[in-house]
Amino acid sequence: MEQTVKVYSTPTCPYCVRVKAYLKEKGVAFEDIDVSNNQGAAMEMVKLSGQMGVPVIAVGSEVIVGFDKGRLESLLG
Amino acid sequence: MYELIVIGAGPAGITAAVYAARKKMSFLVITKDVGGQAAWSGDVENYTGYQFITGPELAAEFEQHMKKFSIDLREGEEVTAVEKDGAGFVVRSPQGEYRAHSLIIASGKRPRRLNVPGEEEFRNKGVTYCATCDGPLFSGKRVAVIGGGNSALDAALQLVKIAEHIYVINISGGLGGDEVMREKVEANDKVTVMNESRVRGIEGETFVTSLTVERAGKAERIVAEGVFVEIGLIPNSEFIALVAKNELGEIVVNNRNETDVPGIFAAGDVTDVPEKQIIIAAGEGSKATLGAFRYLAGL
Hints:
The complex is a heterodimer. Chain A has helices at 14-26, 39-49, 69-76; strands at residues 5-9, 31-34, 56-59, 62-65.
């Protein structure tokens, strides 16, 4: 089943760049949410993850903080 | 058993890997991340051949160059121990152990911690070590930058555009760093510089709400939701006890990148080489591989 993937990021954080490059490489479609210019999205991210560090990746109802390749792989299959 | 294991994949480790690939050595790269501190840098205007490039862009170029070769890369893996093993060495991580006849340590540096109560508890809950990454999340908030050198000034100047107010909490009697940046920080109405001040603790509930700062023997509470720690870097050298280090924990190397243990080389910011620069780290990485190649030929 296709799950929605969202990436909350800032343009300048290197791990954000890496997460997005990784998803593109795997051919996973994702919504790229820039929290640096969207305060509402920033608050949504903080609520979702309980913390303020980027990137945050939401895969369906699962939330990953940081570029955790192992967890991403297991969630994306 | 590999001929070589490179630990780290910042500018030094990646360059070492490129040289090893071109020498057709059998080698492995083990690293926590790819790009190292270069990926966290702002604008780079002193890497020859690039008049202007950002740190993440340069790091991506390095990575592409390395991946042009089909190399054995274990990313996201942190080395926990290095020991002698017969004629070579064993490198351990939580994921496995690997053996090689020679090693290049290029594990770089990481941000120094304050080591105060609340710092670990509120990490990513207001406490951050990367203004470039996390700064935008503190839009309209009161924040504190800890430190008084260039990286602290850089963080403060980035935050001026985002935060409501910035406290710069500096342990010494006056700000250090470049004159140009210092003047900009000091002239900005949104910035309060607190000299001779020491952070004693970080407080909050779910997220940071304040920090306690000691100045002239008196503790005061500063209301802030963000704490940006910019107090310098320490070498990632704890995992290796075999080699000699200086008083800063940097691995001591000679001008051939040899440590005091034959077969173990080191390069880049983890070493005692003066001047921590991307271009220097890259050059040192190439020297380390050429040294390892020569060492292996002599075995």
